[in-house]
Amino acid sequence: xxxxxxxxxxxxxxxxxxxxxxxxxxxxxxxxxxxxxxxxxxxxxxxxxxxxxxxxxxxxxxxxxxxxxxxxxxxxxxxxxxxxxxxxxxxxxxxxxxxxxxxxxxxxxxxxxxxxxxxxxxxxxxxxxxxxxxxxxxxxxxxxxxxxxxxxxxxxxx
Length: 158
Known about the structure:
Number of helices: 5
Shape: globular
CATH superfamily: Dihydrofolate Reductase, subunit A
Helix content: 25-40%
Largest sheet: 4 strands, parallel
CATH class: Alpha Beta
Structural class: alpha/beta
Distance between the termini: 48 Å
């Protein structure tokens, strides 16, 4: 994860993820923690219509048309604009073809409840596997590239 966070120049977060992150990451002040260091110092943009005065340093609320604002953020020079968590935001970005790469982490745990990617009623998006790896603890990290809207065939049922 450390190397993934090193590729970021900014973060785009949904409101719920922002609230969760802002409640804990600002107190993670170990300068040797590369994730905390990046999250606490790099710009953070929050997609929210209700948040007006974010208290976490270097945080701005995205105003106006979200798709246009994200396109502008993506067009800036630099490295990656990363989204972590933020399931509804990711679905919006996929629906608006604003995702360049999707890193899907599968942990070897079945929690019995919760939401899975793609179950929020969004538009179907085809993905092509770029590469994958499995960590020593069994976490599978698969990196996909969106390839547009998939075509579906029909299946005959006898």
